[in-house]
Amino acid sequence: MERTIQGVVDGLILQVKEYGSREPTIRLYRNVCGSLINHCNKKGDEQYTNLIPDEFLKKAEENFENGKHCYEYYRLTKRTIRLLDTYARTGKADFSRRGNHKKYVPSPEHQVIIKMILDENKLVNDAWLEMDRIMRQFFCFLEDASVEISSLDDNILFQFIQIASATKQGTMYRVVRAVKLISEYLKKHGMAKLKAEFSMIQAKSAPVRMIAPYSHDEISQIMGCVNVETPYGMRDRAILLLAFETGLRAIDIIKLRQSDIDWRKAEVYVTQSKTSEPLTLPLSGMVMNAVADYILKTRPESDSSNVFLTLKSPRKPFASSCAMGSIIEKYCVLAGVEKKPFRSFHSLRRSFATELSAAGVPLPTISQLLGHKSFKEARPYLTYDRSQIFFCATGFDGIPITGGIYACASAALPSAFLEGGDEK
Predict the structure, then answer these.
(1) Residue 382 sits in the same domain as residue 399
(2) Residue at 74 is within a domain
(3) Exposed (0-12), middle (13-18) or buried (19+): which is 355, by Cβ within 10 Å?
(4) Are 188 and 141 members of one domain?
(5) Residue 221 sits in the same domain as residue 361
(6) Are residues 293 and 363 in the same domain?
(7) Quick check: pTM over 0.70?
(8) What angle do CA 72, 77, 79 make, to 5 degrees?
(9) Are the C-beta atoms of 373 and 385 separated by less than 8 Å?
């Protein structure tokens, strides 16, 4: 039986949810699956075959060796593809740990302590695996140093954190959490005399990524490649315009119902999947016409109330937002729009915010239109509004500089450079 790649991915994501994974973990799996779909789209592959996992893993290994991806992302990719492969072959993803070849294997006594710590904190699934791995490393560290738990002190815990930082720079928050759980457990049960409060330690945050939005010209190029003479083109045009003109998230677009659109008031009403907060947005005539054309001319007959449906049988709502990523990727390739790092369907939301900012719309208003709880959440979306950034790049006019490197530099420059006039 032939299956589409999108269908296999959707089935896996459903099983990941049923397994009990947390939403941040589910998003990570979706990101990897989205990369797989994009990889296959570029090759023109739509049907899933048993050759796809090995081919994609080979590409992922090349990216890791060339420094394009970190080890943690490469490891996540391997796990995701293994789950996808077992689901495709058996209909059930294999979430069990692979083999017993653990890098860190502490003594049986220490393994019992690890299990008691994990059980006491009620950790399960991925959180259990993450903490178990780091705790095994910690107790192997104690054994190598011949340190008994009864003689354990805070300095040894800090030493372990320092050693772990050499190989776990991207996941130090996990290391700190594991050490915190170990410290709290040993203090609570009187097993070691520890005083440090590790809950006060915060791992250094990863740098904020500057993710480029699609420019107005790029969006024009993309829309110009949509063939509205076909059912796919009519549907995709409505989706892309809705995303760019309203800033709605992909998940809210795929869940959009026909009753959510008020055609008389030219508004759309959604309950945001991310925040569960209601949001009402205006609709332009162009967006309403695009959506109406799709519904009246192309949308398959279905018992589903969702606006957007798959066009292949069985015709049904999209199972995940990965499909939206495939749509934008498809037209970016056709339009020759550059594939920039981390830019995705969500970047249309960034484009929406950036366009509003460039038009002089105040930040609190933009934040309300994006459905944020706080206007501060809108700031990352405006990083490419250069006209606003220029306001922050003020000069030193009228500010006396009496010390430091800038004082030396200004003293060495002719007055023409400082005053903007002819040298006197």
Answers:
(1) no
(2) yes
(3) buried
(4) yes
(5) yes
(6) yes
(7) no
(8) 95
(9) no
Tokens 């998003």 belong to residue: 27
| 185 inside domain | yes
Residues 195 and 220 in one domain: no
Residue for token pair 């999209």:
318
Distance (Å, rounded) from C-alpha 180 to C-alpha 293? Answer: 57
Domain that residue 412 falls in: 395-424
Residue with the two structure tokens 């896996």: 12
Cβ-in-10-Å burial (0-12, 13-18, 19+) of 169 comes to middle
Per-residue pLDDT tens over the stretch 166-223: 777 667 888 889 999 999 999 999 999 888 887 776 666 555 566 778 988 999 999 9
Long-range contacts of 307-310 (CB under 8 A, 24+ apart): 307/256, 307/257, 307/258, 307/260, 307/261, 308/235, 308/238, 308/239, 308/253, 308/254, 308/256
pLDDT digits (tens, 9 = 90+) for 287-326: 999 999 999 999 998 989 999 999 887 788 987 787 898 8
Query: What stretch of H or E contains 53?
Result: helix 52-65
Q: Domains in the chain: how many in total?
A: 4
**Exposed / middle / buried, residue 345 (Cβ in 10 Å: 0-12, 13-18, 19+):** buried
